[in-house]
Specification:
Blueprint (H helix, E strand, L loop, with lengths): L2 E6 L18 H17 L8 E6 L7 H9 L7 E6 L6 H10 L3 E7 L3 H7 L5 H13 L5 E7 L6 H14 L3 E6 L7 H7 L13 H17 L4 E3 L2 E3 L6 H7 L4 E4 L4 E3 L3 E4 L4 H5 L8 E2 L4 H4 L12 H6 L1 H9 L3 E3 L4 E3 L1 H5 L1 H6 L5
Parallel strand pairs: 1-2, 1-9, 2-3, 3-4, 4-5, 5-6
Antiparallel strand pairs: 6-8, 7-8, 10-11, 11-12, 13-14
Helix pairs in contact: 2-3, 6-8
């Protein structure tokens, strides 16, 4: 089934590691953006009936009651799952109560770490106690479906500090956890510091790639022990708590994106809205589309632990790279499926490159 993604690229502060098209802007810009988003939503003619809605950011948890109400009025659909990304510390009883009334039934908390020193190096202001209070608030309003984001490889992170973050997962018992291996991006503040051999943002104390991989593998083992197995490279869930919306991306189901830098896919073509807020507000014609690549599910679907089922033609066309990756122990095959091995997960970028268009 298709889905809708809404981009809300506004934050109270910019994290040092962030390279998203989001940032800190004034109230006037935020108002203009919201008006443009509503205009885009109201003028849209969807070729399908969506069943999931995802508010991404930025920090959409700071959207006002009035703005959220107007957005939902422009989306008169019966969604199975409505997710909103939230920064810890932005939740209030009034806000969560309004979310529940509008039909928001899933919240993704951008926790990143439960260790105060690690959070401060990234520019985050919350604490483990903040997250504990937020989760209690969600549960008190009947929102049991929530996700906790963690990042392995933050500046100053150690095996001991990572174990501390994972111990909070055991205490809080979330149904879903996302674990991302930290990658330096030269477009982020931290990336710039690393390139310039600077001292800010914790640049001198970044863990090695080897340690980051160890932290990730520790999370895989720990979460499985807690009954939260991995179902996608970066995502772990108790059975039945998988993100219905995000599964659309990996299974190549259609979705339409609204807002700055939002991407869309109708099953055959892809397109993207202007990246910056100002360019989005001033946008003119609908963005140009480009055909989807025939090999996409090799480097998108293979992210899922269940793997993919290549067609007979694909087995033949990609016989050489498949054979090579099987021999290297990066892929494994059953009668009809192909999936990453545990080693293949750690080297997934190398695997996917084998199937990218030339």
């Amino acid at each position: 089934m298709p889905g809708i993604y809404l981009s809300y690229p506004f934050c109270a502060q910019k994290c040092t590691f962030c390279n998203f098209a989001s940032g800190v802007h004034g109230a006037a810009t935020e108002q203009r953006y919201t008006e443009s988003l509503l205009q885009e939503l109201r003028s849209a003619r969807l070729p399908f009936t969506p069943d999931t809605l995802y508010f991404g950011g930025g920090t959409p948890s700071t959207l006002s009651t009035e703005s959220l109400t107007a957005i939902f009025a422009a989306l008169p659909y019966a969604f199975r799952e409505v997710t909103i990304e939230a920064a810890p510390g932005t939740l209030t009883p009034e806000r969560v109560g309004h979310w529940r009334a509008l039909g928001i039934n899933r919240v993704s908390l951008g926790v990143q770490s439960f260790v105060t020193e690690e959070l401060r190096r990234t520019g985050r202001r919350h604490t483990a106690e903040t997250v504990t209070g937020d989760i209690a608030l969600l549960r008190s309003h009947g929102i049991e479906n929530f996700n906790i984001d963690l990042i392995a490889g933050l500046p100053g992170q150690t095996v001991a500090s990572w174990q501390e973050s994972l111990s909070w997962i055991e205490r809080l018992a979330p149904p879903h956890v996302s674990v991302y291996m930290f990658e330096i991006d030269e477009d982020s503040h931290l990336g710039q510091e690393v390139l310039l051999n600077g001292k800010r943002c914790g640049a001198p104390c970044l863990p090695s790639e080897e340690l980051t991989a160890t932290l990730y593998e520790t999370a895989v083992t720990t979460l499985a022990t807690l009954g939260i197995p991995r179902y996608e490279i970066s995502n772990f869930a108790r059975p039945g708590a998988e993100s219905l919306h995000n599964l659309k991306y990996w299974k190549l189901h259609p979705y339409i994106g609204f807002g700055a830098d939002a991407h869309s896919f109708d099953g055959a073509r892809r397109w993207q809205n202007p990246e910056s807020i100002e360019a989005y507000i001033k946008r003119g014609d609908r963005p140009a589309t480009e055909p989807a690549d025939a090999t996409e599910h090799f480097w998108v679907g293979l992210r899922l632990m269940q793997g993919i089922e290549p067609s007979p033609e694909e087995w033949c066309t990609h016989q050489q790279p498949i054979g090579r990756l099987l021999q290297q122990g990066l892929l494994e095959r059953t009668a009809s499926t192909l999936k990453l091995t545990p080693r293949g997960v750690m080297l997934s970028n190398e695997v996917f490159e084998e199937f990218l268009p030339a």
